[in-house]
Amino acid sequence: MRIRGAVLSALGAARPYSESRPVRTRELELDEPGEHELLVRIEAAGVCHSDLSVVSGVRPRPVPMLLGHEAAGIVERIGSGVSDVAVGERVVMSFLPRCEACASCASQGRTPCEPGSVANAEGRLLEGAYRLHDGEHVVHHHLGVSGFADHAVVDRRSVVPVAHDVPAEVAALMGCAVLTGGGAVLNAGQVRSGETVIVVGLGGVGMAALLVALAHDGVRVIGVDANRDKLRLATTLGAHEVFTPEDVVTSGVKADLVVEAVGRAVAFETALNVTAPGGRTVTVGLPAPDDLASVSPLRLVAEGRTIIGSYLGGCVPARDVPIFVDLWRRGRLPVERLVSARIGLDDLNAAFDALADGAALRQVIVFDEPSGDSSGDPHLETSSKGR
Ligand code: APR
Ligand code: ZN
User: For residue 52, what are the domain limits?
Assistant: First the structure.
């Protein structure tokens, strides 16, 4: 079928992106889903720093690539080997497929699925397929999702079904911001009542970590960001205290659990500096490979501290999405508050500028509902937001 999607054709474009325009909306050919794959009509897709890191070249990936890894949509067709997801279901995309057969998949989320990581690095789906084409040329998949398009073909093991009461935007943000930030607090960080939590970096991922920490009874939560608008929002959302990175270090405030969600070594150093004796520093940001931090091993030993690196917050999406959905349903996790703008595919370059400036929280691409042609599926929900 013909689809419209946002394709990156070269890494490392000059800023501002609104002028260099590294991402362009294109018409592409999308193949039918394979045996273990699904065709999903995308309803909403969040713009995350990990998309920007591909654009900027901080995380190099094969191009051309159809970006977007935080998305949700409605299943329109299923492969012949799929029996546990039905047409018409809403699914959360997960950017790290799980083969459920490798040693890492047996680690309960501690380490990333090995075949899933290889497929992601190569820009393929989990079983090796490329389903996107521009004429004769392959267009790579982004983290098995490629959600910046009106439709996507994804592996069954790249999605988690959710009930229809979870709005598409909330479902989309569950897949990356909430799993990564929330998982850092609950899984990797193992937060306990009575503890203080500091979150360094209040973008979509860090603000989700802050919300999940606030949802935990008896936890004191402190937000740190270089952007004062983020600090104001964190206060509105319930943070007990907020600081700039400079002020938090001079204030002497320390926490039992510190989550770094910036993706820069300097922020990791801030996180280390504000971790209390006996505390845990969880890092989920993805800096450039040559961005190195300095650590005092002596302080680690003398203060009995722990550093934890965590991809996807140590989450197993099928296990953890329902936990976060339950928190959301009980009114304890207002994921909607993470949406700072609703945009269209053609606004992506400007959206990447805003994200690079630290000025955006989650900018979400919303897709208009089709005019009743493509699937014939009776369960399609009204979720289009217009623009
Ligand atoms: N100290 C504290 N905060 C900082 C600093 C710093 N030195 N530098 C930047 N920030 C803030 C920005 O102001 C912004 O609010 O960090 C935040 C980063 O947010 P986003 O760019 O929205 O990133 P997000 O999508 O949340 O991802 C965070 O997690 O998954 C990874 O690749 C992702 O490394 C990225 C990180
Ligand atoms: Zn992401």
Answer: 2-177+315-380
- Residues 57 and 161 placed together within one structural domain of the fold: yes
Shared-domain flag, residues 230 and 342: no
Residue ending a domain, among 261, 283, 309, is 309
* Average pLDDT value for residue range 259-263: 97
For residue 362, is it within any domain? Answer: yes
CB 384 within 8 A of CB 74: no
Q: What is the CATH number of the domain that holds 116?
A: 3.90.180.10
Is the shortest distance between the CB of 200 and ligand 1 below 6 Å? yes
- Kindly report whether the peptide bond that precedes residue 322 is cis, defined as omega within 30 degrees of 0: no
DSSP 175: I
Same domain, 93 and 153: yes
Residues 134 and 102 in one domain: yes
**Ion ligand 2 nearby residues (CB, 5 A):** 48, 50, 176
Q: Tell me, using a 6 A CB cutoff, whether residue 119 lines ligand 1.
A: no
Of 233, 306, 310, residue with least CA distance to 276: 306
The verdict on the CB of residue 58 being under 6 Å from ligand 1 is: no
Distance from Cα 249 to the centre of ligand 2, integer Å: 28
Ligand 1 touching residue 227 (CB < 6 A): yes
CA distance 350 to 347: 6
Quick: pLDDT tens for 87-138: 999 999 999 999 999 999 999 999 999 999 999 999 999 999 999 999 999 9
